[in-house]
Amino acid sequence: MKKRIYSLVEIKSRELNGKILFSIQMANKGYSVVIGKKKSLYEYAKYFRKGIFFFKGMGPKNIKPMQELKKLGHKIVGSDEEGLVMNMAEIIPLRIDKACFKLVDYFFTVGNVQKRNTLKSYQNEYKKIISTGNPRFDLMKKPMRGLYNDSVKQIKKEYGKFIFFPSKFTMINAHKKVKDNFLKVIKQQETKTPNYKRCYKSDWDDQILIKKKLEKFFKYFPKKYPNIKILIKKHPTEKEEYWRDLVKKINCKNLIFVDDKYPTNAYLIAAEFSIGSNCHTSLESFFFEKPTINWRASKQDSYLTSKVIRAVSKELLDQKELENVCKDWFFRKKKFKNNLTISKKKLLSDNIENINNFSATIQKKYFDKIVLSNLNSYDKYSNKFSFYILEIIRKLKNVYYTIYKTDKNSAEFYKAKFDGLNLNEYKHLIKKFCKLMNLNFDDYLIKEIYPGCFNIEKK
Asked: Where are the domains of the chain?
């Protein structure tokens, strides 16, 4: 029987494609992989055959589910999805909780910088802390970029040439529940976690500064240059009302707020260049070989300023600089490039392990080492009749929580993070990846073993 891996997805638009690529790659290496919304995987863990749960976060909120999974006989590996930027040594104990760390067989870091900083908190754990990279960067490798070809064609057909602004107001424009949690930490007078308060405060202040700059820029630039089109796309966890209201207020046809019809990566590829602010999208744009600008909140580095994002971007500070770069590009045919020096290339490779390799290739070695106590266990109640009953129960629960337990703001927040996944969509994505990877789709067993839990393995 094939060894099983369970891969948790929290934010669909940002994580799903990377998790599907990982699933196919591990299936090709002899594994059975299940992906799904983390709530679904938690709910049916008691029925799953024994396997390895792959967590995307290691904060305190993961302690209880990890403990429950261990009691059920599962093993756990962990990572920190934000580990590329949020890896300062002094906040590692908060992001990688001590109790969680004890429960995992391995902790996978995005690069050696995060690994070294993690080892400062967990000394002598060299065998447990492994630098493997992140699958989101695997999506930027050839031929994986072809995943976005159809979307890129449609975007270019619809919008022509444009500048892309991917927003990152993940705190100041967050849904109420999330925003309140950030503010609670920031406003604490006395705290046992001063570095986390400093981290949140720094991010909050930077976002406020960038918001002011953007609003000032958008108020005059689109009117002054009506032939330069600007597309804005919000971060998956942001509210869209702010952006729709701003665009409506400015009322310029060349300033456009776009929805989630097409993925962010497709907009990055289709754009002339992108403009972010200490944002992962600058890295993704760079790996797609597209120029990117990092608009600094201020001249002085903040607590969260990322050296690696700075390395791959053209840095600008004020509106006039940005205006000149845009004029040069569109009217004077003077285009900038993000060429890396030797030192910047070293910085990049030190922060991201899987630049020249796939993260799953590195991780397989460590999944192979994990021993499951009952490898011959099986998926209980995994048949058509049981699936039908479980699906009815799930729908009834969703209705109950929608009516009695979930307020409107929370419902919008959860929907923005994960708006659903069905078997047809899952199969469609598998087919697209198989075509890109020159694999035969018919060589795989693909099914929904429990509601919202999607399995792939080789026949």
From this structure: 4-138+354-458, 144-341
